[in-house]
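Chain and backbone:
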Amino acid sequence: MNEPLQNLIEALREELKHYGEMLALLDQQQQWVALRQGRELLKSVTEVDDQAEAIRVARHEREQRFRDLARTLMLGKVDGFQQLIPSLPSECRPLVQALVEENNQLLQRIQKRARQNYLLLSRSLELMQRFINTLIPGSGPTTHSELGLVPASALPAKGFNEGIG
């Protein structure tokens, strides 16, 4: 059991590391928005996507290590750490519990920060659209009804495409 347990602990630490890196990227992304650094912001989107993939891989590895340990402990189907931890050696329980809690807390912070960034970016796009609309009337986003029709208010003003007459 020692090796499967150590593998799970290492997988939890690796997942925690990736969550920390994601939080740092999301913090940096907020700064790029605040500083209006478009190029860096675009680069950060790619970095966040790459980090999301690294998290997915780390999470998959941790889930596999979890299943391996549960199988080693002959627990059958185990739904979560709350079922697994009582079966661990008493000296390992606090470490595993702390890693699980830290991962969960960091994941919650990431979700909160991602929502904040989404709102910031959405607001920035909205402001840019307003700016563009002041320069080019009628250039707003086109929306369609359930029937697929474009409302008349979203169409360019008559004569707009004909030039100034």
Q: What stands out?
A: The longest helix spans residues 93-135. The helical segments are 2-34, 38-72, 81-84, 93-135. The chain is about 70% helix and 0% strand. Residues 2-137 form a domain with the Methane Monooxygenase Hydroxylase; Chain G, domain 1 fold (CATH 1.20.58).
